[in-house]
Amino acid sequence: MSLLLNTDIETRTCENIRGSVARAGGTVDQLFSYRDCSVQDINILDGGFGVLGKLSSRRSSLLSLSLLKRLKQDLGYLVKGPMVPRDHKTIILDMHEAYLNEELKHRFDAAISSNLLEHSPNPVFLLLNFYFITKEGGYQFHALPHGKYTYDRFREPTPVEHLIEDFERNTGKDDTSHVDDYVQSAIEKDGWQKSFHERYPLTYPFIHFHVFHETNTRQLMEFMFEDVVVDVLRNEKFSDNIVLFRNTLNREFLARYGEVVDRYSAAFLSGKVGSR
After folding, report:
1. Is the peptide bond prior to 205 cis by the omega test (within 30 degrees of 0)?
2. Any residues with CB less than 8 A from the CB of 109 and at least 6 apart, and which?
3. What is the DSSP string of 81-110?
4. What is the DSSP string of 220-264?
5. Which of 56, 138, 43 is nearest to 103 (CA)?
6. How far apart (Å, rounded) are the C-alpha atoms in residues 49 and 120?
7. Residue 270 resides in a domain
8. Which residue ranges in the chain fall short of pLDDT 50?
9. What is the number of structural domains in the chain?
C-alpha cells in the first residue's frame, strides 16, 4: 500500500464506510475489507452508467449473463464476500438519473465508486445523485484515475471552474467538447485506448471527459461537501486519487448554487433549510 500524501484516509474509510453501501461501477477494492458492509450494486454491467436497462423495484434479472458467468460470480461471492459484484443482484439505472427514483432517496449509509466520475460530462450533477441516494451525514468514497499516471497524462487537469460551468450549463451526455483532447492523449499519443475505440464510440460513457489530479479532486469535493480527505493510492495495481467525505452539502455551496440545484430537481434539496 502506498499513500503518497500520508493522510489517515485508510483508517477513516474503515470507520465510516459501513452498513448499507451503494456501490457503483463494479469492483471497488481500494482500501476496502467490506467487513461491516451490506452492499447493493448499481450498474456493474456497464460501469455505472445504466445504458443497458432501467431501474426495477425488484432486483434485476439475469439479463444477458450466461449461467457460467453467474455461477462464477456467485462462487466468488461465497469465497470473498461482498467484494465481488454480481450482475444479477444489481439495480440498473444511470447514476445521473438516481434522483428520479424516490425509493432511493437517502437509502444507503454510504456510497462508493471506482473509475466512474471521470466518465461523467457533469461531475457535480453526478455527485448530487450520489448525495441523493446516501443518508445525510453518511459518507461517500470515490476513486478516480490520476491523470499523471494514466493515458490522460498528456492532458491538463480539468479546472474546477470548468466543472462548475458544466453544472451551471446543465452539460449533458451529448457533450463533445473534450473528444479532441481525449483522442490526442489516449489514442494518438498514448495508444492505449486505440483498440478499445475500434469497438466503442468516442461518446459517453466510453471516454474520460475530465482529468483529475489530487488538487482538483480536493477542490471539487470541498466545493460541495464537508469533512473531505484526499490521498493518492499508487502501487502496482492502482494509480488513483482517492477521496472520502461526509455526505453533507456545505453551506457555501447551498447558498451559491441552491437555485441551480433546484433547476435540476427539487428532489435534491426538498425539506432542506437554506437551500435557496
Report:
1. yes
2. 18, 19, 20, 21, 134, 135, 138, 139
3. GGGS--GGGEE---GGGGGG-GGGTT-EEE
4. HHHHHEEEEEEEEEESSS-EEEEEEEEEEE-HHHHHHHHHHHHHH
5. 56
6. 9
7. no
8. 52-65, 273-276
9. 1
Model pLDDT, residue 76: 82
In angstroms, the Cα distances linking 155 to 53, 58, 59, 132, 242 are 33, 42, 40, 31, 20
pLDDT score at 274 = 46
pLDDT of residue 56: 46
Question: What local confidence, expressed as pLDDT, does residue 48 receive?
Answer: 62
Residue 52 is predicted with a pLDDT of 44
Q: Quick count: other Cβ atoms within 10 Å of Cβ 54?
A: 12
Cell 453533507, residue? 248
Residue 246 belongs to some domain of the structure = yes
CATH number of domain containing 53: 3.40.50.150
User: Which pLDDT value is given to residue 83?
Assistant: 78
- Grid coordinates standing for 108? 444507503
Phi, psi of 145, rounded to the nearest 5 degrees: -60, 135
- Report yes or no on 161 lying in a domain: yes
Report whether 104 contacts 75 (CB < 8 A): no
| C-alpha to C-alpha distances, 208 to 20, 134, 165, 204, nearest whole angstrom | 29, 25, 17, 9
* Residue 187, domain extent: 9-264
